[in-house]
Amino acid sequence: MTFSPPVSKSFETLPLSAAAQENLRRLGYLEMTAIQAASLPAALQGRDVIAQAKTGSGKTAAFALALLAKLDARRFAVQSLVLCPTRELADQVTTEIRRLARAEDNIKVVTLAGGVPLRGQAASLEHGAHVVVGTPGRVIDHLERGNLGLDALATLVLDEADRMLDMGFVDDIVKVARQCPAQRQTLLFSATYPEGIAKLAAQFLREPVTVKVQAQH
Ligand code: ADP
Ligand code: MG
Predict the structure, then answer these.
(1) Which of 109, 160, 174, 179 measures 20 to 30 Å from 201, CA to CA?
(2) CA-160 nearest atom, ligand 1
(3) Could you report the per-residue pLDDT of 113-129, keeping only the tens digit for each?
(4) For 172, what's the count of Cα atoms within 13 Å in the CB-facing half-sphere?
(5) Which residues contact 13 (CB under 8 A, 6 or more apart)?
(6) In this predicted model, what pLDDT tens digit does every residue of 37-67 receive, in sequence order?
(7) Ligand 1: which residue has its CA nearest to atom 10?
(8) What percent of the chain has pLDDT over 70?
(9) How high is the ipTM of this complex?
(10) Which residues on adjacent β-strands are paired with residue 211?
């Protein structure tokens, strides 16, 4: 199924809390970008989504708003996991999720990427994380050491999925996805849609809504 971007681009058309709407205004996010307008209605309904749009089109907020809307801050368990190809991208995604989560109560976002000692990351996880953003290899490290549990996971995001495949992470992604509960929402974001992404999507997404935005944004 392919959706065309809806006509309205105001965030106010979305079922977001008043606090989240206010936070978006404060951030200067006045209108949705095309990929946000195309993907957020389905993502906020809990559908699996495959979203394709070029770099810089606002894909991070598209999945971040969807996963934040579902979070229960009072529950100290990892409810969302975002897999990214590199440490730099994981840091950027963490920053954006924190900005968008400012309206919520004490949402803890932990970044798990290489180049940083495992111990500090393990301690952060132990203190209680609601959202984990990480690279596949480092996430597996923590899963195997028992530092990270995914039993309460509600949302799995594969961000920059095409780059993760280019970098040879497919087996790692499969490994992580297999440890996630079957009852979850999966969101796949990518700048391009090569064969490998279609295969991955067929394996891990359920009746996904596919949205694709060309050029303009
Ligand atoms: P992508 O992941 O598609 O490459 P990003 O999520 O990194 O793009 O977004 C690019 C920039 O656009 C970021 O600086 C982000 O803060 C900004 N941005 C995202 N959505 C909006 C919006 N609705 N209004 C204004 N700026 C936005
Ligand atoms: Mg991105």
Answers:
(1) 109
(2) 2
(3) 999 999 999 999 999 99
(4) 22
(5) none
(6) 999 999 999 999 999 999 999 999 999 999 9
(7) 56
(8) 95
(9) 0.99
(10) 3, 51
Domain boundaries, the chain: 6-212
Taking the centre of ligand 2 as the mean of its atom positions, its distance from the CA of residue 205, in whole angstroms, is: 19
Per-residue pLDDT of the chain (217 residues; tens, 9 = 90+): 566 655 569 999 999 999 999 999 999 999 999 999 999 999 999 999 999 999 999 999 999 999 999 999 999 999 999 999 999 999 999 999 999 998 777 899 999 999 999 999 999 999 999 999 999 999 999 999 999 999 999 999 999 999 999 999 999 999 999 999 999 999 999 999 999 999 999 999 999 999 999 865 4
DSSP for 23-45?
HHHHTT--B--HHHHHHHHHHHT
Q: Can you tell me the distance from the alpha carbon of 17 to that of 103, in angstroms, rounded to the nearest whole number?
A: 9
- Which bound ligand lies closest to the C-alpha atom of 28? 1
Q: Which atom of ligand 1 is nearest to the CA of 35?
A: 3
> Quick check: 32 and 216 in contact, CB under 8 A?
no
Q: Which CATH number fits domain 6-212: 3.40.50.2300, 3.80.10.10, 3.60.130.10, 3.40.50.300?
A: 3.40.50.300
**Cα–ligand 1 centroid distance for 56 (angstroms):** 6
Ligand nearest to the CA of 59: 1
